[in-house]
Amino acid sequence: PTKALQDLDAAHHWHPFSDMKSLNKEGSRVIIRADGVWLTDSEGNRILDGMAGLWCVQVGHGRKEIADAVYRQMNELAYYNTFFKTTHPPVIALSEKLAKLAPDHINTVFYCSSGSEANDTVFRMVRTYWDKMGKPDKKVIIGRWNGYHGSTLAGTSLGGMKGMHAQGDLPVPGVHHIDQPYWFGEGHEMSPDEFGVHAARKLEQAIDEIGEDKIAAFIAEPIQGAGGVIIPPETYWPEIRRILKERDILFVSDEVICGFGRLGEWFGSTHYGMEADLMPIAKGLTSGYLPMGGVMVSDRVAEGLMLAGEEFYHGYTYSGHPACAAAALANLEIIEREGLVERVKSDIGPYLKERWLKLGDHPLVGEARMTGLVGALELVPDKKNPHKPFREVGAAGVICRDTSFGNGMVMRAVRDSMIISPPLVLTHEEADFLVATVEKTLDDTYRTLMR
Ligand code: PLP
């Protein structure tokens, strides 16, 4: 029974990113099964997974093919490490596959178990790279306010979540943050195009202030996900590209959300015409079936760091785990065979976007935006004055999120932005259900707020 599960859960399970005091009162949501884009909870309700778990279940839930591949691998070689020049067939095959999928200048991957570990790895890689290049002063890494790069010390530090920084006295020294390209929330006094250039030039200003000779890298998500699906104005990435071309710093494209088809390309940086020196990956690599992450490394960094003649003293017990590698291979095979990346670009992506953008007409919505299969709605208290936030930021978002769940769909709230990132296998009918449910949810939320 649900209540018994909730009580046991509350007694012993500390949930990530959860207010445990209110959880203990309300009880957690118990999900027991999933298939395609549908979750089933302990009460037998079917709920559309509008977030693909945590932005990761690209191929949908319940793919027996992945479970079978993992089962076969576990029977053959469940675990062995990849330290000290050891390897095994699944990690060899996966590395070759990833090198083929990545842009031509990226041919190497270092493995870990999550996006956070990938960014910890990045942190050490970029500093060590410059050390090997004879420029040990190049240490500062520039990230962006409201960016998200994970929960470890380096991940939290590189990210720009002030609430997270406050817990643990972070960021660690040597990290600098610049503004995010959030036109709706912070830039609407300019046109989007003007603001895109303005926001990008914050990077140039930071480089000038700190000194290029002290900067190791700039890290950014192609689209900030956990920060609220901040889709930058079209002028943003071209201006960043110009700046990076003129300056000798590494560019880290955090592909943990935007990789593996989310934006209709294999990698988000290619969607925006950016050439990354390093790409942290995780989530969609295995569609979340098993935990796996990595850092994809350009030939430039590989030649400078990996082949420098001294080992990189870094690695995890589960780096290149055979069962996880088998899951990743089976997952990538499904993405390729079913043409899911192309589907996001030219079929389900545009289909959903057309309908999603119309939700911008709702009296509660100040802006609707979507790229590929990731989108946001900005809830506002006064549509005539759309950039003015709610008095109590985040409260409307929570009501809308919980109402959505009750209506049969998972939608995430970031402040008062409602976020979706559904599995890439979403059908047209499911997209129609998604939009209809969001519409009903907005109506219900509006009525609650007007009360
Ligand atoms: N980077 C980005 C862009 C993310 O969105 C996330 C997680 O949401 C991470 C890194 C951290 O990944 P993980 O939760 O697997 O550690």
UniProtKB/TrEMBL annotation:
Membrane recorded as keyword: no
CDD domains tied to this protein: OAT_like
Cofactors demanded by this protein: pyridoxal 5'-phosphate
Stored PROSITE patterns: AA_TRANSFER_CLASS_3 (PS00600)
Pfam families per the UniProt record, alphabetical: Aminotran_3 (PF00202)
InterPro entries given in the database record: Aminotrans_3 (IPR005814), Aminotrans_3_PPA_site (IPR049704), PyrdxlP-dep_Trfase (IPR015424), PyrdxlP-dep_Trfase_major (IPR015421), PyrdxlP-dep_Trfase_small (IPR015422)
Coiled-coil residues: none
Keywords, alphabetical: Aminotransferase, Pyridoxal phosphate, Transferase
Molecular function GO labels: transaminase activity
Highest taxon listed in the record's lineage: Bacteria
Similarity comment text for this entry: Belongs to the class-III pyridoxal-phosphate-dependent aminotransferase family.
Official protein name in the record: Aspartate aminotransferase family protein
Species per Swiss-Prot/TrEMBL record: Roseibium salinum
